[in-house]
Amino acid sequence: xxxxxxxxxxxxxxxxxxxxxxxxxxxxxxxxxxxxxxxxxxxxxxxxxxxxxxxxxxxxxxxxxxxxxxxxxxxxxxxxxxxxxxxxxxxxxxxxxxxxxxxxxxxxxxxxxxxxxxxxx
Length: 121
Fold this sequence. Notes:
The chain is 40% helix and 10% strand. It is an alpha+beta fold. It has a single domain (3-109), classed as NADH Oxidase (3-Layer(aba) Sandwich), CATH 3.40.109.10. It is globular, with a radius of gyration of 15 Å.
């Protein structure tokens, strides 16, 4: 049984989603998976914002150049540089690991996902 390998190999970027909400318990599983990601010195320099309200999803979509999606849920992974005493170096790596855990757990739960990284700052 190679569950992790199978999830890695079968994960795909999904850009067309079903129009049904993601159950709250599944969202909590995704967040737990994200928080289990490794980070430098286990500082966990992240915060997760769960967006599932249609109007807020529209606002999030408007902040990215890659926002051509209709997902009923977005988990925004935010890096918090103040949590790292030596500066923000490595924060993208730490947050990337958390995002990858979310996407791999989506495979396990039968959910689609896509990584959107082109946010306007």
